[in-house]
Structures are given as C-alpha cells and as structure tokens.
Amino acid sequence: MITRLLMSLATAVIVISLLWIEPLSPVVQPHPRFVKLDQSGNALSPWQGPWSCVLDTQRDLVWEVKTDSENIHDGYWTYSWYLSADETQQSQARGEANLGDCYFESSRCDTQDLINRARQTALCGLTHWRLPTSGELSSLLQNPARPGHVHIAQDFFPHMKHGDYWSSDHSQPLSGHYQRFKQGATAVNFHTGEQYPLPYRNAAFVLLVADLPTEFQSTRLKGVTH
C-alpha cells in the first residue's frame, strides 16, 4: 500500500514538473528552395504567415500565391488566354478576351486582366508580373504529398486546383478535338503533371510570376539562408 502511494506521489510530481516546463519553440528547417514573402515582399520564417508570394531561390523568381478570399488572387477564378500586343511584343494582341470567370471584372476576364490588376496593386512590392513560361511552371511540379493532391509544394502554394494553368507559350498548333481552333497556348496540369496546348478561349487557372530584381534581393531578403 505504501509502495503504491509512493509511486502515485512520484507520478504526480513528474506530471506537475512537466506542466511547468516552458514549451520549446518550434524548430522548422528552411525549405531548400522556397521562401515565403509577405504582402510587402519581406521574407518570413517557414512557420510564419500569412504570405502573399513565394520566392524560388533556385530560379530567382517570385510566384503569386492563390487565396480563398475572393480577391483578385482567388484560386477559383479562371481566365481565357489573352495578352496585349505589348505583352507578346507583336503587332497585335493574341488570344480570346473575357471568356473566363472572375468576379473582380464587370464582364468576364482573361489573363491580361489579372496581370494588370497584380501590377496595379504592386503585389509583394513588384510591378512586373507576367505569365510564366511552360518551363518555369513545370519546374514547380513535384510528387504530391498524399495521393490525390495537386503536384506542388502545398505548404507554400495552398489553394491550387486540380486543373490546367496557363503558361505564356502561345501560337501552339492544336490537334484532335481542338484542331478547328488552329492555335492556342500551352497549359500545365497540376493534377496529372502533364502539359499540352489548349485553345485560347478555354477557361483555365493562372499562377503569375515575376523576375526577382537584384535590389529586391539585397534589401528585403537579408538573413534568408539556404
């Protein structure tokens, strides 16, 4: 009886001691490639948030981060592929305007609309947002963390959808079911990991990118280690 009482007393002492110990701070290792950025473009620790962009340190690119807040970066909005002549550096615009679905436009919407809005609001302190090339977009593909999830680092890119995302690669010949539309742009599918050309008029998702300026790296990313 005395032995049981002493054991119970010892157990109580241990439990009370553990409750008084200050919990350790979370130890999160930096990602070997990605860094979270806040709305102003300042670097965050891996466990901090919210974040508006992701820096790809391997490619010196800054990626838009999608949201679920029904603003211009909402991950549910879709866009037809359309770019102005200035964007394509050609004599005329390319694509099909206003055939997507995004509620920040009075009529429907297209890729140029999203680019213009992201530049106007200086997302993460940058004003040169653009569509990524298919190579840049495909570089984000990775095996999903769990079966059925999108092929991307979801800890950094939440709200990505199982579907096609537009790249900047245009004037691609179409075949099969889409042959009657003649040309389109390349899309990358983050559900299957594939890429293929689609008609400009198709409504697809968009993940914008911006090149990392040298001055941006020196002033806002101090202390970031990889």
UniProtKB/TrEMBL annotation:
Domain Lcl C-terminal residue range list: 53-209
One Pfam family here: Lcl_C
InterPro entries (UniProt xref): Lcl_C
Highest rank taxon of the organism: Bacteria
Protein name: Lcl C-terminal domain-containing protein
Lineage, uppermost ranks: Bacteria, Pseudomonadati, Pseudomonadota, Gammaproteobacteria, Alteromonadales
